[in-house]
Every structure is written in C-alpha cells, then in structure tokens.
Amino acid sequence: MRFLSSVLLACTALLSSVEAQNGYKGFNYGAFFNNQQAKRRNDFAYEFNAAKQLPGTNGGFTSARLYTMIQWGTQNTVIEAIQAAIDTKTTLLLGMWCSSGQAAFDNEIAALKAAIKQYGKAFTDLVVGISVGSEDLYRITPTSIQNGGGPGAQPQELLHYIQQTRDAIRGTALQGKPIGHVDTWTAYVNGSNSAVISALDFLGVDAYPYFQTTMENSIGNANRTFYDALQATINVSQGKPVWVTETGWPVTGPTQNQAVASAENARVYWEDVACSLMAKNVNFYYYMLQEAQYGNPSPDFGIKGPGDLMQIPTRFDVRC
Ligand SMILES: *[C@@H]1O[C@H](CO)[C@@H](O)[C@H](O)[C@H]1NC(C)=O
Ligand SMILES: *[C@@H]1O[C@H](CO)[C@@H](O)[C@H](O)[C@H]1NC(C)=O
Ligand SMILES: *[C@@H]1O[C@H](CO)[C@@H](O)[C@H](O)[C@H]1NC(C)=O
C-alpha cells in the first residue's frame, strides 16, 4: 500500500500539469474550405455533427477548436461556427488570430464582444477556453521562415493581445474562462518566450512526430516522441495546465525522414497517442476530422478523406 501510494505520488508529480483536466475531446476546424470559400453555419453544423457521430467514440468528439472569431471574408462579423455550436451543443475552444497585426486583432476583439452580445449565455456557456494566437511564436523562428511559414507575432505583441482579451471579457459572462495560447512545443521550451507563459492560464501544445525530421521519427517511436514533447512543455509550463491542441499522423503524403504516411500508421498513432490522452482525461483536439472536402491535400491528416463527411467511412478504426 505504502509502495503503491508513493508510486502514485511520483506519477502524479510527473503528469501534474495534464491531470485534473476536463477531458474535452474535439477537432480543429478551419474557417474556410480548400477553395477559400467560407464555411457557413450549416457547413460547421454538418462537421460538428459528423464528429459526434464517429463510430465507436460514444459521441465523444463534442468540442471544437477555432482559429478565429471572424467569419471568413468579412471584416469583423462573428464566425458562423458560433451559431453552429449552439445548434449542435458543441463546446468551444475559441481562437483569436494574432499574426496579422493590431488592426486585425481589434477586429477579433470586436467579433468576440459581438458574439457575447448577440448570443449571450447560449454561447458563453459553451466556451471552455480562449486561445490568443496559434503558432505565432513558431512562425517567427528561423526554421519556419526557412520553410516559408508566413508571418507570426513577437512575444511582446502576444502579451498585449492577451491583456486586451482579458480586458475585453472583464465584466462579461466570459470572465473567468481560461485564457491560453497555442504553439509548438519547441516555441515553449525557448526561454525567450517565457513571459508569454507567465501571462497564460493554460498552454495549448501542438506536436507532430511526423514533422520532427531531425529525430528518429518512425511510427514505432512516435508515442515516445510525442510524450517527450508534451513533457518538455509541462516542464516549462510554470505549473499551468497543458492542453493538447493539435496532434495527428497523416494517412497520405510524403515520407518525412523515417515517418511514413499511411492509414495503418495513423491507426497506430491514434491507438497509442489519442487513446492514451483520452484515457488520461487530457483536454485534446485532434488534427483532424477532414483535411479537405475535395482535391488531394498532401499530407492529408484526415480521419475521413475527401467527400461527404456523413456518408464516407473513416479511413481507420477510431475505437480505443
Ligand atoms: C526563440 O524565441 C525568440 C522570441 O520568440 C525568437 O526570436 C527566436 O528565433 C527563437 N529561437 C529559435 C532558435 O527558434
Ligand atoms: C523534464 O524535467 C525532468 C525533471 O527535471 C527531466 O528529468 C526530464 O528529462 C525533462 N523532460 C523533458 C522531455 O525535457
Ligand atoms: C504512450 O506513452 C504514454 C506516456 O508514457 C503511455 O501512458 C502510453 O501507455 C503509451 N502508449 C503505448 C501504446 O505505449
């Protein structure tokens, strides 16, 4: 008994930052289709319902992570995913896009405030967290710039945006909802970004062993590689909860070092990583339900391939 409880204590300390979470399970949802057409209320609702109806998951995928509050193609109209979430009782990890400068961020804030006003409690009750930014710190690194990764944001800018978000929700029904940021584990372990961590309520980490090409990244090592990345993030999290906001393994696409994209390997990754995260009750957003409705995205991380989401089968068994 004594032995058991000390083992238990050791484990608790190691994974303390991922324990005592709510076990939200969801997918990441972009604001537009791969032809740049905006997703509308019914499109989002269709995706959210398809996520709930995944065979073998017991209606488990009931949360949605968004990247922006703004309806695609508008200045600051509330994204229609909010109405779709209300329609389908889907909880929301909101996203504020932070890599287009202050004027664009003002529009994110305007849309956030408008959503609170427009939808009230029906909306605010569904919100499980707000992520200020997505991989902005990764995109300012030499690695991302070399890969043509697009603009990011400096830690100092993110600090302003986090404060502006806190100010915007003060005195509203969203006050008290956790405010976080999403980035790669490599951005978190970079000491130049520690002030951002200090300003957060939780860290959302994105980790893809498939892309970790400087390591031995075969599927056989993927569980270990993933959990090392998670642990490295926990180690610098200043005791704050670490949510897994993106991870996955592609079903098709190029081989990256030792990482081979295939349905069998995606199934192994699901069983090892996704199932163990769910068993640990970690807040978890898989990448992704469907990469694109049509075309041949490469790599393609979709549990479902191109086609009608409700009609086509999953490409691998998602039971745990
Ligand atoms: C570390 O973080 C700083 C600030 O975000 C960034 O400018 C720098 O490029 C990062 N270093 C590496 C090696 O990624
Ligand atoms: C996390 O910190 C522990 C304790 O300092 C250390 O033993 C371990 O190697 C670290 N893990 C990673 C992945 O950095
Ligand atoms: C993957 O690693 C985690 C953390 O070490 C562990 O809990 C889980 O059982 C592992 N899964 C497999 C299939 O080895």
Automatic annotation (TrEMBL):
**Which catalytic reaction applies to this protein?**
Hydrolysis of (1->3)-beta-D-glucosidic linkages in (1->3)-beta-D-glucans
What domain of life is recorded for the organism?
Eukaryota
Q: Which residues form the signal peptide?
A: 1-20
A Gene Ontology biological process annotation? cell wall organization
Question: Main subcellular localization, coarse class?
Answer: membrane
Which InterPro entries does the record associate with it? Answer: Beta-glucan_modifiers, GH, Glyco_hydro_17
The record's family statement is: Belongs to the glycosyl hydrolase 17 family.
One annotated Gene Ontology cellular component of this protein: side of membrane
Task: Name the enzyme group at the top EC level.
Answer: hydrolase
Which Enzyme Commission number(s) are on file for it? 3.2.1.39
User: Where's it found, cell-wise?
Assistant: Cell membrane; Secreted, Cell wall
Kindly give the membrane topology term recorded for this protein. Answer: Lipid-anchor; GPI-anchor
Q: Briefly, what is this protein's role?
A: Glucanases play a role in cell expansion during growth, in cell-cell fusion during mating, and in spore release during sporulation. This enzyme may be involved in beta-glucan degradation and also function biosynthetically as a transglycosylase.
Query: This protein is called what?
Result: Probable glucan endo-1,3-beta-glucosidase eglC
One GO term in the molecular function aspect is: glucan endo-1,3-beta-D-glucosidase activity
Q: Which UniProt keywords apply?
A: Carbohydrate metabolism, Cell membrane, Cell wall, Cell wall biogenesis/degradation, Glycoprotein, GPI-anchor, Hydrolase, Lipoprotein, Membrane, Polysaccharide degradation, Secreted, Signal
The record ties this protein, via PANTHER family, to: GLUCAN 1,3-BETA-GLUCOSIDASE, GLUCAN ENDO-1,3-BETA-GLUCOSIDASE EGLC-RELATED
Q: Fetch the SUPFAM superfamilies from UniProt.
A: (Trans)glycosidases
